[in-house]
Amino acid sequence: MAPELQDFLYPRRRYNGSFSLENLAFDANLQEFAQKVNYICNLENGGKMTPDQAYEEIKTLWKELKRSKKQLKLSSADDSEQ
């Protein structure tokens, strides 16, 4: 894939938080999650996917993101509430 097309389809932003390899990896996972949710929303809005299908896909992606956070041993005050 051409670099221009790659940048257009999968935009990445610079990480500005406190640096650690874990934070950097989670930031990449979070950006990928956001990109995939955007695609799913567009498919649902375009009639290519039902709202229930979109919900289930996003729910699965959310679980994967939570799993990656846990594997990277990142924690926050919100963890005990969920």
Can you give keywords for this protein?
82 residues; mainly alpha; 3 helices
Write a structural description.
- With 82 residues, the chain is mostly helical.
- The chain is 65% helix and 0% strand.
- The chain has three helices and no strands.
- The chain has helices at 3-9, 21-45, 51-71.
- Helix 2 (21-45) packs antiparallel against helix 3 (51-71).
- The longest helix is centred in the middle third of the chain and has 25 residues, at 21-45.
- The radius of gyration is 15 Å and the shape is flat.
- It starts with a helix and ends in an 11-residue tail after the last helix.
Mean pLDDT: 86
Distance between the termini: 39 Å
Major sheet details: none
Unreliable residue runs: none
By DSSP, the count of extended strands is 0
The count of helical stretches stands at 3
Morphology: flat
Cα radius of gyration in angstroms = 15 Å
Strand content: under 5%
Helix share of residues?
Answer: 55-70%
**SSE order, one letter for each helix or strand:** HHH
Q: Strand pairing plus helix content: what structural class?
A: mainly alpha
